[in-house]
């Protein structure tokens, strides 16, 4: 938009000079070369990120001030076209609507009016014979009135934009919160089954492509029904939460742990050897078995787990069925153990 405005200003000035509506001595090449250089500096500051060190990183105010000074210089030579050329001040004001509030827009309008006033005073002193006082007064008042309404409407648009931006930000936050909730299990905060199944497919296709190893473990808390029956449902919930906390801390960040449902959990181990997976599960098992609970001193819990390595190109169903079979074997072996299928 800045480039468009400058082109328009230069074109207007150029045509004005050619049609002798502007003073033929208008130094438009000098003015626009200067403008070009200043804008190159702005461009470099913005592109290199150096502008971030400024209070106003978009350099809106500086760019507007440059534009206003350029327009004022051109207006000095504008003669009959002055009335039309005054509207370019307003084009510059439109830049500010997005990032300046009403007070800043007012300051910018006062700056424009002051520049124009100085121009008129300068003309009165330097070339009094060319001055038609009624024209000057008319231009001055019209500019003041238009700038006033611009500040009012511009401020209103700015407030509207700020509100829309705020609402969009709230919506984005709400969306992010919902997205985070949608993949988590309420009780434990672990990933839920739906999310896990998505990740399972992703990791399987990654392992297929890269040929890397992938293990799936299914963990089931032993005799969990008894915990509920003996100590109550809230106690059962606490045991589930305790296991989740231990597993979250004990496993690596790259391992994907989820609550599969009830007292059943799943872990995906990408890029880990079978021995390392089994020993990680055994460590967890020992730590879980050593847990004490405030509501029942004598309560000790264990889990059984089945673990299998992904065989390239097998289906999700086959992969999980093999893990299930290994878990079944662990239960059959007397529970509190890890079986590799
Ligand atoms: N407290 C609590 N209990 C749950 C939750 N989800 C499932 N359960 C209970 O977990 C118990 C699982 O029982 P079973 O499937 O018989 O398994 P188990 O008693 O652990 O027996 P084995 O797996 O053979 O050792 C059921 O009583 C469910 O009601 C939960 O979120 N909180």
Automatic annotation (TrEMBL):
Residues 212-341 form the GGDEF domain. SUPFAM superfamilies: Nucleotide cyclase. The keyword Nuclease does not apply. Its EC number is 2.7.7.65. CDD domains: GGDEF. It comes from the Bacteria. The chain crosses the membrane at residues 29-46, 58-77, 83-101, 108-127, 139-158. Pfam families: GGDEF. Its cofactor is Mg(2+). Keywords: Membrane, Transmembrane, Transmembrane helix. It catalyses: 2 GTP = 3',3'-c-di-GMP + 2 diphosphate. One of its GO terms (molecular function) is diguanylate cyclase activity. This is diguanylate cyclase. It comes from Alcanivorax sediminis.
């Amino acid at each position: 938009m800045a480039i468009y405005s400058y082109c328009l200003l230069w074109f207007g000035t150029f045509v004005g000079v050619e049609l002798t509506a502007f003073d033929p001595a208008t130094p438009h090449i000098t003015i626009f070369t200067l403008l070009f250089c200043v804008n190159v500096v702005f461009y470099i500051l913005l592109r290199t990120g150096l502008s971030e060190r400024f209070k106003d990183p978009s350099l809106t105010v500086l760019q507007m001030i440059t534009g206003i000074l350029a327009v004022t210089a051109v207006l000095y030579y504008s003669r009959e076209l002055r009335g039309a050329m005054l509207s370019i001040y307003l084009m510059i004001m439109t830049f500010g609507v997005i990032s300046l509030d009403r007070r800043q827009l007012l300051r910018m309008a006062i700056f424009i009016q002051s520049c124009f006033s100085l121009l008129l005073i300068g003309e009165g002193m330097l070339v009094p014979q060319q001055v038609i006082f009624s024209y000057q007064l008319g231009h001055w008042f019209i500019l003041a009135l238009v700038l006033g309404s611009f500040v009012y409407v511009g401020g209103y648009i700015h407030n509207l934009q700020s509100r829309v931006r705020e609402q969009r930000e709230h919506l984005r936050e709400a969306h992010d919160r919902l997205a985070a909730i949608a993949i988590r299990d309420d009780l434990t905060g672990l990933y839920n089954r739906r999310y896990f199944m998505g990740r399972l497919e992703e990791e399987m296709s990654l392992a297929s492509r890269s040929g890397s190893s992938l293990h799936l473990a299914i963990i089931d808390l032993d005799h969990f029904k008894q915990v509920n029956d003996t100590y109550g449902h809230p106690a059962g919930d606490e045991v589930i939460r305790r296991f989740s906390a231990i597993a979250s801390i004990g496993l690596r960040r790259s391992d994907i742990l989820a609550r599969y449902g009830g007292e059943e959990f799943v872990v995906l181990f990408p890029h880990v050897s079978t021995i390392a997976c089994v020993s990680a599960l055994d460590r967890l098992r020992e730590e879980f078995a050593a847990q004490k609970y405030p509501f029942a001193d004598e309560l000790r819990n264990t889990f059984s787990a089945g673990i299998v390595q992904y065989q390239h190109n097998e289906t999700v169903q086959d992969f999980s069925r093999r893990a299930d079979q290994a878990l079944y074997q662990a239960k059959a072996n007397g529970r509190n153990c890890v079986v590799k299928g």
